[in-house]
Write a structure and sequence with these properties.
flat; 2 strands; two-stranded antiparallel sheet; mainly alpha; 5 helices
């Protein structure tokens, strides 16, 4: 995954609600699959395996976070098990065509969870995190991105 994308996901995670975290995890998995496909076509097997392994870790995290008091969790677990099996097979057997089914599953789940996250008013899961104000400024011949943190002294986790 590219450094800029990691920074974007990191910033979004600090401001995300519970359902938005799931949306971000689905986006990371899809991004990893896209990066793996690019690496496969560039014949970079090391990056291909690394990206699929990273996606697999996120699928495992989704599996471990399921709440089985909700009936939907059992159906999601079945999808996650299938996706994990296909990711592993694609990585070991070097068969990127197996990733198409995984992509379809996570694109559909992503669309559904995006709708749910729009209605989630619970607020950010992480408390006492850095407040981010972003903007663009114009320099001589350049466009600069910057952020201002108004609570720098209060940043971090409180014990």
């Amino acid at each position: 995954m590219k450094k800029e994308l990691v920074q974007e996901f990191s910033m979004r995670i600090t401001q995300a609600s519970r359902t938005e975290l799931i949306v971000i995890m689905y986006e990371i998995i899809l991004s990893d699959i896209a990066s793996a496909m690019e690496a496969f076509h560039a014949e970079d097997t090391k990056t291909y395996e690394k990206e699929l392994s990273h996606a697999g870790r996120f699928v495992n995290e989704l599996m471990s976070a399921l709440d089985y008091s909700i009936g939907l969790s059992y159906h999601l677990m079945s999808l996650y098990i299938f996706a994990n099996r296909e990711l592993t097979a694609a990585r070991v057997q070097k068969q990127p065509e197996l990733l198409e089914g995984v992509e379809d599953i996570f694109e559909k789940l992503l669309a559904g969870y995006r709708k749910v996250s729009e209605e989630d008013t619970s607020g950010p899961v992480m408390k006492n995190t850095q407040q981010v104000y972003a903007g663009l400024t114009y320099g001589r011949g350049t466009l600069n991105e910057m952020y201002v943190n108004v609570n720098e002294a209060k940043r971090g986790f409180m014990a």
